[in-house]
Amino acid sequence: MPVFKLLLSLFFILPLGVSAQGWMSSERSADGVANTFRIMSYNVENFFDVYDDSLHLDDDFLPEGSYKWTSQRFVVKAARLARTVLDAGGLGPVDVIGLCEVEGDSALHHLFHRTRLARLGYQYVVTDGDDVRGMNVAIAWQPASFSLIGHTAFSVPLPDVSQRPTRRILLCSGRTAGGDTLDVMMLHFPSRRGGHAADPLRQAAVKTVVRVCDSLQHCRRRPHIIVMGDCNATPTDRQLLPLRSAGLRYVPAVIPAGSPVGGTYLFRNNWSCIDQMWTCGEFRGMECQVFVRDYMLERNADGLPVPFRTYRGPSYHGGYSDHLPLVARFFLDF
Fold it and tell me: For the chain, which residues score pLDDT lower than 70?
């Protein structure tokens, strides 16, 4: 067995033959176990704290930095992110939340313990990784519906030593309320800023996801794997083809009826779904939707609705994020 697979199999030694259920607080089966499981994926646009990290280039997002990132602005942003998460949950909290572009534990501690989310009791893990600015990904969960068994962060190998390292890929494995094993991966692939120079690094990140999924499929008798995050590419992009070849299935994101948006991200007045969810394993059904509310949008100079960002260039707008989140419901196969 390759070392990569052996490490995974040793790290996640779990009972593999348990029965499956799904969960959601608003829909429950006769035995009282909720029958759907809800997951949210959200790129929260530069969610930095206000403290200097001497190991990373976070100077722009300090009170004296170019963006004048003050404690007041941080608190406003955290409150707005909390509002979005609460609204997405509706009558009951979302079971698992994946976040992109978070600086680290300090920012997340405030979000989950000092905003309106505090009463919900979310637990979380965050990578402490390789991105030069200190940008990381995180996964938070409801302990009542997802009991963490283990987590690990995978570095993306550099195709060229001269390249800047990119964000790690976070894997959390846990048991659901029905006893099933669920593996959730959160990613933030390298951006296309600067053209095709980052293509080899993006390919390396995709291959890392494929290797992890392949190892999990060998470890699980009945795998239930969810991969989500900001892919910085459309679902049909050729660089994401290895995901399909590895058996991952793209979960199409539905736009709410009557919504003025056309995806999760707007670039040069063109909407796209670069934020995505993919699955591997025995799910009997799934639904995924772009989550949008009027308060998450503003009007641009042409009068068109666009995501209400925290910053537009160097200009502070005080909004939520330049991305819209995805919220999905998953149903297991048996």
Answer: 1-35, 194-195, 332-334
According to DSSP, residue 27 is labeled B
- Compute the Cα dihedral for 259, 260, 266, 272 and give only its sign: positive
DSSP 275: E
What is the tally of helices (H) and strands (E) in the chain?
Answer: 5, 18
Cα–Cα distance, 22 to 185 (Å, whole number): 18
- pTM of the entire predicted model: 0.90
Return the number of other C-beta atoms located less than 10 Å from residue 159's C-beta.
15
Would you state the torsion angle of the CA atoms of residues 52, 53, 59, 61, taken in this order, to the nearest 10 degrees? Answer: -70
Query: Are the CB atoms for 155 and 129 separated by under 8 Å?
Result: yes
CA-wise closest residue to 23 among 329, 283, 333, 251: 329
d(Cα 100, Cα 32) in Å, to the nearest integer?
A: 34
193, exposed or middle or buried, with CB in 10 Å at 0-12, 13-18, 19+? exposed
Which run of H or of E encompasses 51? Answer: none
In whole angstroms, how far apart are CA 23 and each of 29, 37, 84, 130, 228?
9, 4, 21, 35, 19
3-state secondary structure of 132: coil
pLDDT, residue 277, reads 98
Q: What is the pLDDT of residue 54?
A: 81
Q: How many Cα atoms are found within 13 Å in the side-chain-facing hemisphere of 308? A: 14
Integer Cα distance of 210 and 198 in angstroms: 19
Measured torsion, CA atoms of residues 174, 183, 276, 245, in degrees rounded to the nearest 10: 180
